[in-house]
Amino acid sequence: MTNQPLLILSEERRQHEVQRALAAATASHYQLVRNRWLIAACLLEFVGGLTLMGLGFHVTGEDFGQALFLGGIIVGYLGPVWTWILANWHGGE
Fold first, then answer.
1. Buried b (16+ CB within 10 A) or exposed e, 72-87
2. How far is residue 88 CA from its own chain's centroid?
3. C-alpha closest to that of 65 among 57, 73, 77
4. Is 9 helix (H, G, I), strand (E, B) or coil?
5. How far is 87 from 35, CA to CA, in rounded Å?
6. pLDDT per residue over 10-48, tens digit each?
7. Could you tell me the end-to-end alpha-carbon distance of the chain, in angstroms, rounded to an integer?
């Protein structure tokens, strides 16, 4: 019984497949790094919003404290959501 390869590829085709695999690995690494930066930015916005909310309790003046608190809610909760949505919006590409 002889062993014959199931698929015979030329050297050019092998090089092309290697190039495609390297490009896919590079793109995957780029997406991983990009997502980590997005997560860091979202966490920073969330912490900034919590800081504004906390600062709203420690300032004098009812209107200023309420404005800081509500601004903290907007920044802390909507900031990360819109950062993620706008960063992953591929409508123009």
1. beebbeebbeebeeee
2. 8
3. 57
4. coil
5. 10
6. 889 889 999 999 999 998 998 899 899 999 999 999 999
7. 54
